[in-house]
């Protein structure tokens, strides 16, 4: 399937016919907000070149100044990955001794604008559950690095059995993180937590329901960010639940009353209800408690 930006506009009728899975909302306690602000900094750190390019044994840093709590923690990179696959999947595994956590982080895409304007989202069978289908590019981005990551991840978890396991990412990194978390849980790490910021849709309803049922999912959207609106509902893709919908303006402090927790694979009260994806709404994609992609390098390389 091939969709241009003009084709996206022609699907408004199909979008309107998509039935919501639930419209229930709940508030978050203020204390939970601190956790959200903390874990997004690990997603932000995944954009910084020095954290994913042959830096095993080093401490995490963010030249953009958008991960101060991570920089203050006692961290050590266990394994980093980049430039080894056709998908250029990049990120790291880090040990955080201050917060007693093992974090697997995936970098977002440098060329996300390109795949909004001219996108193709075929399905593939990830063999996670009966009837489950995942988006091919997102699943391949995980599958091509999975074996080496699992080797280091399992060894690190075994060496630190009391540490929590957290999988994070922003944008494309959040899509890969969502599928990776589902797969990792299926391989025995049942309590792995997912913090996915600005994730596109990654699954058909069967897979979305499977991941939702695993629990420990924190999927964030922000106002009219166009990225979580792709792939389109008319293509059969839906989100995992719940959605943590951030209503604060761009470049502003997010308070607890700026985050709505919305249930369901499709919920028109959140990001999905703000209209079709548009490049003019792209500023909302950057701000998730911090400028999540502030460490991106210059230019827009044609990589996924």
TrEMBL record:
UniProt KW keywords: Hydrolase, Signal
Transmembrane segments: none
InterPro entries the record matches: AB_hydrolase_fold (IPR029058), AB_hydrolase_lip/est (IPR051299), Fungal_lipase-type (IPR002921), Mono/diacylglycerol_lipase_N (IPR005592)
Signal peptide: 1-18
Example GO biological process: lipid catabolic process
Residues covered by the Mono-/di-acylglycerol lipase N-terminal domain: 7-76
Protein name: Mono and diacylglycerol lipase
């Amino acid at each position: 399937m091939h969709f241009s930006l003009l084709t996206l506009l022609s699907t408004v009728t199909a979008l309107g016919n998509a039935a919501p899975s639930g419209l229930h909302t709940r508030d978050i306690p203020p204390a939970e907000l601190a956790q959200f602000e903390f874990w997004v900094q690990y997603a932000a750190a995944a954009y910084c070149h020095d954290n994913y390019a042959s830096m095993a044994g080093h401490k995490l840093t963010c030249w953009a100044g958008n991960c101060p709590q991570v920089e203050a923690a006692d961290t050590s990179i266990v394994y980093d990955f980049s430039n080894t696959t056709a998908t250029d999947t990049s990120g790291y595994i880090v040990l955080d001794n201050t917060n007693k956590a093992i974090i697997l982080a995936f970098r977002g895409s440098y060329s996300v604008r390109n795949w909004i304007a001219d996108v193709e989202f075929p399905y593939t069978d990830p063999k996670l559950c009966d009837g489950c289908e995942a988006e091919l590019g997102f699943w391949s981005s995980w599958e091509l690095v999975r074996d080496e990551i699992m080797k280091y991840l399992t060894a690190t978890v075994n060496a630190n059995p009391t540490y929590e396991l957290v999988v994070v990412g922003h944008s494309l990194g959040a899509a890969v993180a969502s599928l990776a978390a589902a797969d990792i849980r299926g391989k025995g790490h049942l309590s792995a937590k997912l913090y996915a910021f600005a994730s596109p849709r990654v699954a058909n309803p069967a897979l979305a329901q499977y991941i939702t049922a695993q629990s420990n999912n924190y999927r964030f959207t922000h106002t009219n960010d166009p990225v979580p609106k792709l792939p389109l509902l008319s293509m059969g893709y839906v989100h995992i639940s719940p959605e943590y919908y951030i209503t604060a303006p761009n470049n502003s402090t997010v308070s607890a009353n700026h985050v709505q927790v919305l249930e369901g694979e499709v919920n028109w009260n959140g990001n999905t209800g703000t209209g079709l994806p548009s490049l003019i709404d792209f500023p909302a994609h950057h701000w998730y408690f911090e400028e999540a992609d502030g460490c991106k390098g210059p230019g827009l390389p044609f990589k996924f």
